Amino acid sequence: MPAPALHARRLRRSIPALLALLAFCLGFALLAPGDAGAGIKGKAKSATKSALKAADLEPVRIGCRAIGKKGRDGIRCRWVAAERSGSATLACRGTGELPAKRADLRFKRSRCKRDKGGTNITAGAPDRLAKKGLEATDAFCWGLLGKGFLCRYEARRFGDRTYDCRGLAKLRGKRFKLRRKKCDVNAPATAAQGSVGSALAAGGLKPASIQCRPDTGGFKCGWRALRGSGGWTYHCEGTAKTGAGGPANLGPCNLSAPEKAPLGPPNKSLHFGVNEGWGTMLSEIDRAARLGGDTLRSTLVWASVEHSPGKYYWGHFDKIYSRMLADGHRPLFVIMGAPCWAAANASCKLGEGGHPPAPAHDGKWRQFVGKVAARYPQARGLEIWNEPNLDTFYRGGPNPARYAQLLRLARQGVDSVGSKLPVIFGGLAPFNKARAGQIRHDDFLRKAFQSGAAKYADAIGHHSYSGRRLRDGHTEGLRIQLAELKDVMIDFGVPDKPLWITELGQSTAQKKVGQKEQAKTIARAYKALRKVPGVDALIMHRWRDTKGKGPESGYGLTTKSGKAKKVLCKLAKTRGRSCPK
What we know:
The protein is elongated and about 120 Å long. The chain has helices at 3-54, 116-131, 187-202, 285-289, 302-305, 315-326, 362-375, 400-416, 441-450, 474-491, 515-529, 566-574; strands spanning 57-66, 74-85, 88-99, 106-114, 135-143, 149-158, 162-172, 175-185, 206-215, 218-229, 232-243, 248-250, 254-256, 271-275, 295-301, 330-336, 381-386, 423-428, 459-464, 499-504, 535-541. The protein has four domains: 53-114, no CATH class; 116-185, Nuclear Transport Factor 2, Chain: A (Roll); 187-256; 271-539, TIM Barrel, CATH 3.20.20. The protein is built from twelve helices and 21 strands. It has an eight-stranded parallel barrel with strand order 14-15-16-17-18-19-20-21, surrounded by five helices. Strands 9, 10, 11, 12 and 13 form a five-stranded antiparallel sheet that branches. It has a four-stranded antiparallel sheet with strand order 1-2-3-4.
């Protein structure tokens, strides 16, 4: 092949390689200045961020641009950052300039103003952290220019050990998310925690939570524990102090009952029966016996027996007592109502019930109760007064301190004749609020206990009524009432004293309560209350509907004519008995 042709062919083969080399060199020439500019910008941004941190500012946004052509005169950065000022958050702005021929940054702050959103979020941060199981010790939050808020926090976490935690959290909308968290065991606090736990266990308490915080010379710990007694589990709260490595010094335990009475196995020895004025319907006692109970409650009014001092008329109550025993029941007598000659109220009229005796006749009251105990030795017990927290039955207005005196005198009367009959604290009417003529059931019990009543009663009487319907939580309301009484009993050191429910009922004279609703409600309540640990008696109120239009007219298990209501048959079925129609 001729030489010119050979050279031309070789040249054609070299052209692609030459073009590729040219493109590489051109691209390098174009890209190198830009990469250099990017490097300077990165350096300026990093220096600005470091300057913000040194000034205790939290960077929110940093934007940098070149000064002059291709950054020949340096880089200028504009920044937005957050600053903490006491409990407030400030939003600050400024610049950071990195000249081309200088290594140090010219840092300038232009202005700061209050960040209202960040301030509010900082104030609410402890609550949000608490929902995450953290107890905040420090928190600072700032806005992210319309993209939510960021919080830096320090907190404690309590569990089997105590941890010191720190990290970041982000709030956007309603979502509060921990973005970064680091927790380290706080060894001294954990040791204090263990010391308190050992002290609680030694005192018969089961620790539920222990939280120890640094205090002068050691730690101050708050604790919650559980104590079981009589089928109930009580909550116990208190504080403790520990020295450096020393034993825990426990403070007093403030026991409290659960929100509502617990349920356990049914009480197989429960005293069950019906309340009524049995003296006017002796023939119905046999029918009531078919419910399978062992107790019938009836009022024994002092004024009906001792019309005048020293003259007693027992015949009416002798018949009730004998008939009940004959039908396999033992009477629970409710002793109340002084005769007018012994009443505290000078305006007492014959036939009025519920008058308490005057202090001048305390001896006569004590003597009368003793005579009842001696005359009716097979009674189920003696209940002292009916609903003493209501002026309808305690004339002149309820008086817890005076009632405590009457209870003490009644106990002395029973003891004076050598009787072992239980003395029952008068069944309390349940009230949500105190009003003229009435005191809340738990408040009355507390005030009576403050006057010494706790040591004179063998059991605490209560009347289980609720204004609620079944679907509105009727049974739960009754359990709450019992827990409220237990709280008082705990405070006075008698948590295991029995509870006697001496009246349980619901009236068909209430609005929207018919026989079907009454039957379901009472059956449900009966099933629940017989499972409450410590409830030793459950008495229905009442056997027969009465004349009138008020609520009292509709509580009966039978109608005014004696026909069985649905509640009677439902209750009998619940107890495994046939309906006593």
